[in-house]
Design a protein that fits this description.
The structure holds 3 protein chains of 3 kinds.
Chain A lengths: L3 H17 L2 H8 L4 H28 L2 H29 L10 H13 L3 H22 L7 H11 L1 H19 L5 H18 L2 H4 L2
Helix pairs in contact in A: 1-6, 1-9, 3-4, 3-5, 4-8, 5-6, 5-9, 6-7, 6-8, 6-9
Chain B lengths: L2 H8 L4 H5 L2 H8 L4 H28 L3 H8 L2 H17 L10 H13 L4 H23 L9 H6 L3 H17 L6 H23 L4
Helix pairs in contact in B: 4-5, 4-6, 4-7, 4-11, 7-11, 8-10, 8-11
Chain C lengths: L3 H9 L1 H8 L2 H8 L4 H27 L4 H8 L3 H16 L10 H12 L5 H26 L6 H6 L3 H17 L6 H23 L4
Helix pairs in contact in C: 2-11, 3-8, 4-5, 4-6, 4-7, 4-11, 7-11, 8-10, 8-11
Classes of the chains: A mainly alpha, B mainly alpha, C mainly alpha.
């Protein structure tokens, strides 16, 4: 029978499509997003990712032995690869990562994730829209990449099969937790839905300002 | 050649019509008129509700748990399709509680009737209908705008995920017919392709009782 | 005897019913003016239909709610053999291939009969009644004028004989037994669909139909 993660990601596709047509994402897709907007997104996402690493750590505290390596890998990859992409792009776009301050969407999303991570299964479900969502969005955008090289590189990072593999591992951990009774479907679905909403609003970051 | 490839080869004369159907191309370029759009939602809604019963029936008669697992993997997508149609219909004021056309009724009944003909025959029909959808919608995936109202439908029916599931179905077919498809499998596969084409034409051109 | 439920179904579909009993195809068999190519088409398609109908009827026997209903339904199977023989003899004399691919309406309609079994006995027996009553009324309409003149007499007689009338009446009584307070919404919808399929079937064999 279909796994919990399969059911959730199927449910989440409309949310990915909504992101695909969000003006910010559309601008990245065309390669003409106002650099000011992207700069602002980079700063907010950098701050988001710092707490995202903490979420993996909070989950690792509660993890069974067989998941420990995956969570460490996720934290490591976020820290060394995703954050390094941000630092590289920040230089190209003139973003000030050190001086950045969280806007409301970023603050709300990270607070939600850190709180959700207090419960192992709920936390894994809450992570799914970000991991699976960005991987799916990246792969869709990569079907028609822009000519603009910086945005094309950004897309390539999330379209990368290595990133997809991390998203798959994340999903499998959720399915394991579900199989072991550490989370039920209604709780997981609610956490997933809430995170997906945060994901969509996060794209508003450059419009409302930090 | 594997059984799944033989089924496709036998029906290949129909494939140009699958790849160039005016309905699919009108959806992709956004030229579908309002009446056809409404017909499409009604037809696909009614069809998908019956199709889910067909999938469930197929799971029931699946000879191994591997077969059942692979087929069941398709259930969330079909639930997703039904939900998407409901949402789109509400947003555009389309009444889904309308008697569907004769091709919808006849085609979905045909699928159902195949459950009595044996698992591999019904499975060939499932494989056929999904292949037609995947290939038909893939033929326009590259040119449909993401802002196109119908993009979620096009994307779902030409996605990698869908392709992976169909690959799983083809492996089931190959395992169920290691010496090649039986005549009833060939017939069922071909009839479903023809019914799918009539289904699309009925939506596009309008079909009444 | 009541047969109120059957009568209620017929009343609801009266406008369509009128078109069935006066269909040009059937009228032309009565006065012998039918285009032979159309008759050939009908022979081939109705042979397919009867094969599918037999599976449907057998399935209906299988889901009958009690032995008395099963008796009635099972009695309808044997005459189908004679019908099939009639088709086969006529097809042979006309050198028609009965093994060809059916038209879309034939395939859709016979599938609908069979699929109705999954909707339960109440709906399935309604579908049976609709199909049989439609044929009886259509062929009975041309019977009087056709005797002795029409080359299609064996067919006209088959579906307008006293024996066939008795069968149709027995099925109507099954409807009363299964829905004594009148037809359910599901029964009404199924009956209406059968009438519409019957009309499409006549149109398709008269004018021809392609995939």
């Amino acid at each position: 029978m279909p796994t919990l993660s399969r059911t959730l990601t199927e449910r989440g596709m409309p949310g990915v499509h909504a992101q695909l047509v969000h003006p910010t994402v559309a601008g990245i897709a065309r390669g003409d997003l106002d650099p000011e907007a992207f700069r602002s997104w980079l700063e907010q996402d950098y701050l988001f990712l710092l707490d995202y690493v903490r979420v993996f750590s909070r989950l690792a505290w509660q993890a069974p032995d067989q998941h420990l390596g995956d969570l460490v890998d996720l934290a490591h990859s976020t820290w060394h690869e995703e954050l390094s992409l941000h630092r590289g792009l920040a230089a190209e776009f003139g973003a000030d990562l050190i001086g950045a301050v969280k806007g409301e969407p970023c603050r709300a999303y990270t607070a939600f994730l850190l709180d959700a991570a207090a419960d192992y299964g709920r936390g894994l479900a809450a992570l799914l829209p970000c991991m699976w969502g960005y991987s799916t969005l990246g792969r869709l955008l990569a079907e028609r990449p822009p000519a603009e090289p910086r945005y094309a590189k950004w897309i390539a990072t999330y379209a990368d099969s290595g990133f997809a593999a991390l998203a798959d591992r994340s999903a499998r951990m959720l399915d394991d937790a579900h199989a072991e009774g550490r989370v039920d479907e209604p709780t997981a679905t609610a956490a997933f839905d809430e995170a997906l909403g945060h994901e969509l609003r996060f794209w508003d970051v450059p419009r409302t300002g930090s | 050649m594997s059984a799944s490839r033989l089924l496709l080869a036998h029906s290949s004369p129909l494939w140009p019509r699958v790849l160039k159907h005016p309905f699919v191309h009108a959806v992709a370029d956004g030229s579908l008129d309002r009446d056809a759009f409404a017909r499409w939602m009604v037809a696909d809604y009614a069809y998908n509700l019956e199709y889910r019963r067909f999938l469930a029936g197929l799971i029931t008669i699946a000879p191994t748990s591997w077969d059942a697992d692979v087929i069941a993997e398709g259930l969330p997508s079909h639930k997703g399709d039904i939900e998407l149609i409901r949402q789109v219909a509400v947003r555009h004021g389309i009444d889904l509680d309308v008697e569907p056309g004769p091709t919808v009724i006849g085609f979905s009944a045909y699928l159902h009737s195949l459950l009595q003909r044996g698992y591999e025959v019904a499975l060939a029909a499932l494989f056929s209908s999904e292949m037609v959808y995947y290939d038909g919608w893939s033929s326009v995936r590259g040119q449909a705008s993401w802002e196109n109202l119908y993009w979620p439908f096009i994307e779902t029916w030409s996605s990698q995920f869908f392709a992976d599931w169909i690959a799983g179905l083809s492996r089931l077919i190959d395992a169920s017919a290691p010496d090649g498809p039986s005549m009833p499998m060939f017939v069922a596969f071909d009839r479903v392709v023809r019914f799918e084409l009539l289904f699309w034409t009925g939506i596009y051109a309008g079909e009444t009782w | 005897m009541s047969v109120g439920t059957a009568r209620a179904l017929l009343a609801r579909s009266a406008p369509l019913w009128q078109r069935l009993t006066t269909h040009p195809f059937v009228a032309a068999t009565g006065d012998g003016s039918l285009d032979p190519a159309a008759f050939d088409r009908w022979l081939v398609e109705d042979h397919v239909f009867v094969l599918g109908f037999r599976r449907f009827l057998a399935g209906l026997v299988g889901i009958a709610p009690d032995p008395r209903a099963a008796d009635v339904l099972a009695a309808g199977l044997a005459p189908l053999q004679a019908e099939l023989e009639l088709f086969r003899r006529e097809a042979a004399s006309r050198r028609l291939d009965l093994g060809g691919e059916p038209q879309p309406t034939t395939l859709g309609y016979t599938s609908y009969l069979h699929a109705s079994l999954a909707d339960g006995y109440q709906v399935a027996v309604t579908v049976l009644y609709g199909a049989e009553k439609a044929y009886y009324d259509a062929w009975a309409a041309v019977r009087a004028g056709a005797r002795g003149r029409s080359p299609y007499w064996p067919f006209i007689d088959n579906w307008s004989s006293d024996a066939f009338a008795g069968w149709v009446a027995a099925v109507a009584r099954l409807l009363d037994a299964v829905a004594p307070a009148g037809p359910t919404a599901a029964m009404c919808l199924a009956f209406d669909r059968v009438v519409r399929f019957e009309l499409r079937f006549w149109d398709a064999v008269h004018a021809g139909e392609t995939w």
